[in-house]
Specification:
Chain lengths: ~325, ~325
Amino acid sequence: MASIHDVAKLAGVSISTVSYALSGKRSIAEATRIRVNEAVETLGYRAHAGARMLAGDRTNIFALTAPLHSETYAPAHMAFVLSVVRAAREHDYDVLLLTQDEGAGGLRRVVTSSLVDGVIVLDVSDDDERIDLLRSLDIPATLVGVPRDTDGLVCVDMDFEAAADLSLEHLAAAGHRSVGLIGHPHAIYDRGSNFPRRFRDAFLAAGAERGMDVAFEMADRDGPSVRAALDGLAGALPGMTGLVMHSDESVQTTALGILRDRGISVPGDLSVLSACSSFSTEHFEPPLDTIPLVPDDTCFPAVALAIRQVGGKVPPHVELVPPRYIERGSIAAPVA
Amino acid sequence: MASIHDVAKLAGVSISTVSYALSGKRSIAEATRIRVNEAVETLGYRAHAGARMLAGDRTNIFALTAPLHSETYAPAHMAFVLSVVRAAREHDYDVLLLTQDEGAGGLRRVVTSSLVDGVIVLDVSDDDERIDLLRSLDIPATLVGVPRDTDGLVCVDMDFEAAADLSLEHLAAAGHRSVGLIGHPHAIYDRGSNFPRRFRDAFLAAGAERGMDVAFEMADRDGPSVRAALDGLAGALPGMTGLVMHSDESVQTTALGILRDRGISVPGDLSVLSACSSFSTEHFEPPLDTIPLVPDDTCFPAVALAIRQVGGKVPPHVELVPPRYIERGSIAAPVA
DNA sequence: CCTCGTCGTCGAAGCGCTTCGATTCGCGGC
DNA sequence: GCCGCGAATCGAAGCGCTTCGACGACGAGG
């Protein structure tokens, strides 16, 4: 592997000149810069990562901790992981993938050995062992998600409260007064993963505030459970004309299938809306109105915030991404 | 952050002694080793990753290139990624996640900058731009998968040929003579991802060799496509009594649902076997006999091989993991 | 014409670690 | 009693890079 030494020799300059020519941290004559770049090109030179870390006090690597629990919906999880990696690459950062197996230990390890410049935390739960560690480590970090206690933390997340309200706003505007919510599997609420809880709480609160009748049911990924959830809602809301689904793809597909089997047409008999889904509802039968949960919307800002923290202090705060609404015709006026 | 210097001072020895005490590369008096370890403990010392890379010529990081295509089945993909990370951690290695966006460029970047000691390649296709690059880079690498041309490569994979034959062996033993195969979506075969092709080819060849009637259909992830595949098989094999499914979870679930709807009982009317599935078929209705595709079975050997390559040369070769068969009662004798 | 500021460049000092001799000490063998 | 040897330890030389202070050249201002 060619070293900066070889480049300097070939370009006929000193190694410090090469370094400055490449980093741009001092002014360099145009002619010199060109010669250096040519030398780099012909030698295929790339700075040695270890040397750069040692001398430069910067690794250009972020750690990504993204626990995968048994109830985690893998496609969504994967989408967030990839979004973080792509965002990092836009800033010339690489991503080291940590798993749950080591627990918070892995985080401590990579941070204290100066392997990473910062940490991106996915799938935050309310009392997460990673959070206290992060606070004590005092290292650039951004959480994608909002834990109960955000003290001293930098967080980015979808504004689930606004999303819940937005979903009811659209249904109310169409004339609906009685709306059910199908949520994620029990286990996800139990584990303290917080966004489903936030959506649910905001949904129920917004419904009350708007004077609407609302109810909530959780659904696992099997047919009987989804059927039970739908029945539960129908029982709680005899006059239900609207349905919001805040759950993963398979549950929503299953639910639509059940409605079809029962001869309930969408939106003729029931208006349906998919809220905060990280997949496309375009190919559903029928396509659903949706408030999309796009990984890039939160992961790119999260990485950008981590970068800014590396460059200097960023005051702890929470950034909420406002929800968007996409119409696909699955909401109509309720039939009397 | 405490440095090796601080440890040396606290333990009252030189830094080289600390280094040797920790690495064990030279003999150290027991008493000294203990003092060093105590100092490490009280200071919370961890070697600076960059310094270690620079001086030690080893990064203890592997790059993982795991392209995610639109047709890729995310849960399986994720399972393989995590398996690699866990395997790496067992050897004190970390994993840098590369994505498709940079193409082979990302690979070149991390290798030429000496950021990683080696590469693990997932989801190999027959003509993969990463492969030529790897060959020219001359760096420790293990492919999980077997490309058409394995010259100069170290590969590990499930023995799909043996798995295909094993599935027919069990069906034949139960008395079946006419067996259909449902495979992955078209796009996966088109793209050159090679294990589905290998399974299919081996299945058809083994069927011919055993003098059985066999047929093959691909199925996308939607109901109509699965239905069409089943109909296609029924058309090609009027006397079909056995069905092998080599496809992802949703297709298999859908297929079982269709069979149920049509009043075809398993294994009463049709014997069904799930082959090379990376998910559990235990909770299926009914549970299916399976030849499981366990990520750890290939990823752990793959990482181990990469480690051995870092330590010295390992001759290029292909390691095939023999298939196992798990009975769950979904295969019975065919009714006349 | 001399001085001063600017621009472009260079040499050298680390960054924290690994590793290669070299050194010291204690012990057994002759 | 001396030599030789192995065990334990140390000092120093890098590894390849960044960055700081210094220096020469050159143009502008007095």
